[in-house]
Amino acid sequence: MKIPFSPPYIDDDIKQEVLSALDSGWITTGPKVKALEQETAAYAGVEHVLCVNSATSGLMLVLHWLGIGRGDEVIVPAYTYCATALAVMHVGATPVMVDVKDDFNIDPATVKAAITTRTKAIIAVDFAGWPCDYNALFAIVTDDTTKQVFQPVGAVQEQLGRIAVIADAAHSIGAEYENRRVGSLADLTVFSFHAVKNITTAEGGAICITLPAPFDNQQVYQTLRLWTLNGQTKDAFTKSQAGGWKYDIVYAGFKINMPDICAAIGLAQLRKYDSQLWLERKRVFETYSKAFAKYEWAELPPYEMEGARCSYHLYPIRIKNITEQQRDRVMEVIAANDVSVNVHFIPLPLLSLFKEKGYSIDDYPVTYLNYSTEISLPIYPQLTDEICSLIIETVANAYKQIVE
Ligand SMILES: *Cc1c(COP(=O)(O)O)cnc(C)c1O
Q1: Does 233 share its domain with 137?
Q2: Does the global pTM surpass 0.90?
Q3: Are 116 and 149 in contact (CB under 8 A)?
Q4: Is the distance from the beta carbon of residue 257 to the nearest atom of ligand 1 less than 6 Å?
Q5: Strands annotated E in 153-270
Q6: How far away, in angstroms, is 240 Cα from ligand 1 center?
Q7: Structural domain includes residue 141
Q8: pLDDT 10s digit of each residue in the chain, 404 long?
Q9: Is residue 155 included in any domain, yes or no?
Q10: What is the position in ligand 1's atom list of the atom closest to the CA of 83?
Q11: Are 32 and 163 part of one and the same domain?
């Protein structure tokens, strides 16, 4: 039997919720999406959440709303999924890559060094579900000298008066930093509900809108929502109600709304996330950490810090003093033994698109070290203790076979 890497969690409650959308006569953006927005907001401890059709489009939407475009720079970690940087490119701006730290997350010191008069935002990625150092990032953007360098263009940037901090929280729903939930830690936070993420809607994403005063987050929600639906003043659900056929188009919006049929999956998952799905991920994570702590070659992922909590999205184990080629061979042996493993991530500068644009991995030594020694093990609620033991044994044997 092959152990899959990250199958979706689908049970009867989830099927029932999807069936209820199908039976309701309304399958696209409507009551289920509204419920998912409200329940995600309550879960993250924020007031305003907008659902979209992916985290990628969520990131594009917030960058566009911030007025970021041609000639602007957005700082991103070199160690992330391509979507973080592609969203920046899709609004016409330039992703400026910086190195990460040993904990896989963006290094505030490299961020500070990368700031120019063109810098408009920082996108921090909570790698594997471990929150970034948001205090350090906010200390940089609110620092007087950094604020003096900032050159606002447009009303939103004028009002913010500094570089925006955006959280790419594709991995980190349910994580905490200083006893605060991810969702409330940045100016704008984007969750992914893609099929492999901790909560899924098959494809989807959600934006937490937590801008500082004097921004009116309810008004920003309304604006962004309009922009997900072609800039149309009445959504299809409202129009479908009696007498509501008239509408106007007031903005050249996008079409990036979430359908109710998708929201139903996420709603049923979210309702059992803390009480079950997150706990089961934690169990698998801790089982691995306890077992691998016995091996001096194993570098365990971070998950303990005062006031912090991980979402346990990935289990990124690193093997000390190993080359990229050895790592690849260890993975081959693991795969040959029917355990699916992965690498998170191939650093952006190693991908053709970014290489051709002139980014070089030589500029990101910690990113390369993390990447070349990393293997992501399966982590999801369905993994029993027995299967975990099998995975641990398979990894340890593969190390022995290739390296010892
Ligand atoms: C999955 C992922 C995304 C993209 O999410 P989509 O919902 O598929 O657009 C963005 N950033 C990171 C770090 C991811 O892992």
Answers
A1: yes
A2: yes
A3: yes
A4: no
A5: 164-168, 176-177, 180-181, 188-192, 205-209
A6: 33
A7: yes
A8: 899 999 999 999 999 999 999 999 999 999 999 999 999 999 999 999 999 999 999 999 999 999 999 999 999 999 999 999 999 999 999 999 999 999 999 999 999 999 999 999 999 999 999 999 999 999 999 999 999 999 999 999 999 999 999 999 999 999 999 999 999 999 999 999 999 999 999 999 999 999 999 999 999 999 999 999 999 998 888 888 777 788 999 999 999 999 999 999 999 999 999 999 999 999 999 999 999 999 999 999 988 899 999 999 999 999 999 999 999 999 999 999 999 999 999 999 999 999 999 999 999 999 999 999 999 999 999 999 999 999 999 999 999 999 98
A9: yes
A10: 10
A11: yes
Q: Could you tell me the residue range of the domain that residue 81 belongs to?
A: 12-270
- Is the beta carbon of 125 within 6 A of some atom in ligand 1? yes
Ligand 1 mutation target, pool 6, 53, 56, 59, most atoms within 8 A of CB: 56
Same-domain status, 266 and 302? no
Q: Which amino acid is at 388?
A: C
Helix, coil or strand: residue 69 = coil
Average confidence score pLDDT of the chain = 97
Domain boundary among 249, 270, 291: 270
Q: Return all residues near 175 (Cβ < 8 A) that are at least 6 apart.
A: 126, 129, 130, 131, 169, 181, 182, 308, 309, 310, 311
Rounded distance between C-alpha atoms, residue 29 and residue 27, angstroms: 7
In terms of domains, do 300 and 265 share one?
A: no
* Phi, psi (degrees; rounded to nearest 5) at 255: -125, 80
In a domain, 152, yes or no: yes
- How many domains, in total, are found in the chain? 2
Sorted by sequence, the CB contacts under 8 Å of residue 144 that are 6+ apart come out as: none
What does the pLDDT look like over 116-169, one tens digit per residue?
999 999 999 999 999 999 999 999 999 999 999 999 999 999 999 999 999 999
Same domain, 79 and 160: yes
Same-domain status, 259 and 315: no
For ligand 1, whether the C-beta of 170 sits within 6 Å is yes
Q: Examine the domain organization and report whether 92 and 225 are in the same domain.
A: yes
Question: Domain of 381: which CATH number?
Answer: 3.90.1150.10
Q: Is 4 part of a structural domain of the chain?
A: no
Would you say the CB of residue 311 lies under 6 angstroms from ligand 1?
Answer: no
Q: How far is the CA of 171 from the centre of ligand 1 (A)?
A: 8
Collapsing DSSP states into helix, strand and coil, what is residue 124? strand
